[in-house]
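job 3f2a | input accepted
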Amino acid sequence: MSGVTSGTGSASCRFAHYFVVCGLDTETGLEPEELAGKYSSLEWDREKKDLFQCESFEQSPLRRSFKSKVLARYPESTDRSPFNRDAVNMLCMPHGLSFRSQADGREHHFHSFTVAQGDGTRSYGFVHTYYEAVTSAQITTAMQTLHQMHHVEHYSTSSSSSSSASSPSTSSMDSLVSSLGELDADSLAARPLSACLGCAAGSFQPTRDTLYASKALCVLTPLPFLHAARHFLSQLHQAVTSHAAPPLPLESYIHNILYEVPVPPPGRSLRFYGVQGPIVCQQPSPEELPLGDYPLGEAFSLLGVENMVRLLTSVLLETQVLLYSQDYQRLMTVAEGITNLLFPFQWQHVYLPILPAPLHHLLDAPVPFLMGIQRKDCSQCSTLDLSHEANLCFVDIDNHRVDPPEDLPLFPDQPELIQELNEVLLRFGLQPHGGATTTNPAPAAPPCLSSLVLEDLMEDRRNGNLGGEELAMLERLQALARRCGEGGMEGGKTLGRAFQEEEEELNAAKMNVQLREVFAGRFASIFGRYEEFVIHSAPDLESWLGNRDGTSNFDKGSFLSAQPSPHLHFLSWFLETAMFSSFLDSKVLSRWADQEPLQRVFDGRLEREHLYDTFEDDPGNRRYRKCSVLHKSAQAMERRLLKADHTAIHPHLLDMKIGQGRHQQGCFPRLQADVLAQGHHTNKRSLHQSKLLDPSHSAVTQIQRGFVEGLLSECRLKTRRMLMERMGKESVELGQGEASITGLQENTLIHSLCDLLERTWGHGLLLKQGRSALWSHLLYCQANGEKMELPSPVYSVKSDHICQSISLPGYSVQWFVQTMSESLSEVGRARAWIHLSLEKKVLSQHLKLLLANQNLIRQLYKPHAFLLREEEREQFLFHLLSLNTVDYLCFTRTFTSISIPYRVVITPMKKLSIAMTMSNPWVCVSGELGDSGVRQIPKNIQEIFFQCQNLGRLSTLQLGQENSGLLAKCLVDCVIVHNEITGHTYRFPCGRWLGKGVGDGSLERVLIGQLVSPRGEEESGRWTGTPPEQGSPPQSGRMGGLVSLGRSNRLSSVQVQEEMREAVNNLVKHFHKAEQERGNLTALLCGEGGLVRSLEQFLLHGFKSSRLFQRSVFIWDYVEKVVVSMETADQMGDLRGSTELCDSLCHYANAINASPRNIGKEGKFQLLVCLGVRDQLLPQWLPLLAESHLTARLYEESALVQDRAAVNSLSRILHTLHEFPITLETALIKGVDL
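job 3f2a | predicted structure (1234 res):
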């Protein structure tokens, strides 16, 4: 049985904090809303890019906006909720006070808003606006005067324009008044009203017309009780406009909702009484989703399921979101609906679903925001000309359109999610496509219940024949009958229709909770095991707070490694958002303080999921699973709404003065303040109010200063994070850390840096070309003919022609980006410019040169813009300069389809006085994205220049020449390849002969590349850049030189085995990384310290040499001898061991020898090892070599190959590579058909 409860007590426990009346203040008169006219005057058509004017003076005074005032509020103040007069007034009437005549439409409407306090808490306002007749003669006269002035203005304007082609008149108010004196009333009356724009539709004559002014009735609540507040205000308005007086004075109902109606307990519902009947509100239990009363079904119907998912993705990734609609309530419905879907996360940035005209300066905010502005009647599919559009999600609600930012990733399992949402909507009769608001045909209305039926029920009640449920139903019927009129109809509304409306509200509430449960289930699936990756490094709260910025609370790399690949793009972005950081901070703080309510609910759900073991063991192969609690959640909601658990105290007669509370139809009375002040608590402490809603000049200045400081702080944290991420990747590559998805996170950070620069350059921007503020600035500088000359980087190679080739002007970056592709948008070009500048290590220098022309910046920007703050600007550039200490390949790896010019230089060994003599030399450069093809080098030329599609990070280079006798030979030191666009230089060490009859007789070498840092050798000791980006850590030893037997003998068996284990370990770590994070496999196989080099040292250990001075020997000679021995033994039938293995070794060796390529003995051994690893034969070949009778002849007894235990150990180590798919570069295996 429901109990009776009272709301008397703390304001935080009451249903409503304030009741407010806003409207026309007859004492101050008419004040034009200047800011509303100013910010609505300039609009921009997103399709046609046309500017047009809707100047306020061209409109009839009945179409203009005037300043409204807070006429009354009750009580004056409450505990924990200070009253913000300016904010409430602006949000009750966002476009100001409006007037109408009896000939105009005067529909009343409802909207809501939210007000944020300084501590982040929100209160909700619910507003019922209607038009009330103006009884003040002063206001009526003022409106008549404005109409006359408006008429004269257009009369004088049209007269002057007919005589000369001058610009429209901008006469002052004094000139208009003097014009009125020169023209008599007859001339005004004689002039056709149609000659005046807007006059015919909005004329006003006091003797003929009745003037109406808008008035707003508002209830401020601590929780979003949308439906309950809407019903209360609607009943209050109906009581005001009704012919009959309400049962009690309006003060009784307002006093009741302010002081006697409590907030429903968690998991319970509450019935309280309005003017015309009971109203029910409810609050979810602690285990359910938080209260969300805004109709999600309406939001999905307005935008469509796909658009809502796109919008949610934009909000989750903290882009700038701008909602656009004629209806204020639509703005709130979409904004609140989207934020309700964020559970368990919360929006952390500027949140103003309704942005009043005086606050339009916040559209310049260089931070993520979620704001809404009203569409004007004169605009078609248009929005304000915004300075921030590069990362803007524009939501045109009325036209069912969402324009997300470029490159927005898909929400995880988006197709399956959309399908599940469609099923929910269809179950409730809603179409899933935007703009389709049709529902299933409503059942025929039941016959109208007569008053006799109600009388019989009331008689039964008096006789005690009705139980508790029947009594509740009777009260519901009586309330519906009153709402429909005593005769059963009012405006065609039957009792059946009223029942249908209640049923629709119930269905909307059930649909709300089911749609929210679908998204809550998705987040539970994605972050079901997030606690395993939370890092608790601080021993106590004080130490954690002291090192908060420098501490990582979450192992992002390991978390991403456990996720399905299609989800990584979205998740890598989301893990960098403020809402996820706040969520983690709350989790860490829960060790020392109470857990946040949202997180407690979410963690409780995860615990129940773990209890039933519904999470899959392999999250990387997670399958989509539909939400299983939809029906249960809807049942709990339905149970609370159909049967109230508690009943508030009924409204009652108050101790009012005689004559107060008289009913005057259509006029909201002046309420008795002393009665409504009863029981209010004095606010003893002053609470901080948000400055965002303060339109004063000092507050705006303070807000803009906060934006500037925020940009600088964000730049500092972001560059520090990028450096830490990059250094962490290098530690992984050097074997000092665990493998993680570092490159994906690095790309995310660079994308966020692009967003930061766009927001910085967009702050306070006045003039812009296209959607990108940064690219617009570059174009303006280019149009002014400015040049940015930067010092050229110097590389370790001392060749003058190389230094000259990279001496590019500062504008070369912009010029190259402009010529990249016409398909790139302005935002894409700006991002390409940032990526290329960052890779060339000139980002800070280029931006500094951009900002050198302060005269241009003053023309383009408002005085409060970040770029005009010298001290902050210098610090900003300093933080960006720190990124020069690390190497990035962000441009090379992002823009993969562009054409890049390369320069190749062959450097002979200068220490020898042997001239370079080569016959028709050629090169082929290979990278992670492809190869250049064979490029011929002209005779007697050491340098070649060519252009081809981006090769990515370079890995190998084939250098060769034709077989033209013994004179065509050269001792090559290295080959240098320079990327003319990014400035990267790759060094391919050789140190060997290329020619027949010298060295190993090779006419072709496959060289492994290294990225060279841009500094001279004399500065190498001071250079703090990143090490060369190689696939394996550098080892001590010669770079690809001749294999010296003496050196191999100097290495102990322990050292040789350690090198072998290290080479295999590097390969294993390579394959344990995410695919997009793996380095150069060829370098791990064939480079310095690679598998080929280590195995060569193993086979050289203890090798006997009868040659004088221990000249160079080659392992391939030994392999060939063993192969010949096996083939001979096979022919004679003396072959021991596996015939199949012996045949495979002989087959591979003979195929390599038969190859048309002359790669020399070292190259042949390298190819044999690579093919053996690829085909999983190498661990089985080693015992064959060790057991050959030639091995005992050619090796000493202490040699490793003679040690059976060492050979078996090496075979087991190599066997660990069998589980990995090894794909060899074409440059290695070309010409060998195996």
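job 3f2a | Residues 708-728+748-782+809-894 form a domain with the Methane Monooxygenase Hydroxylase; Chain G, domain 1 fold (CATH 1.20.58.900).
job 3f2a | closed
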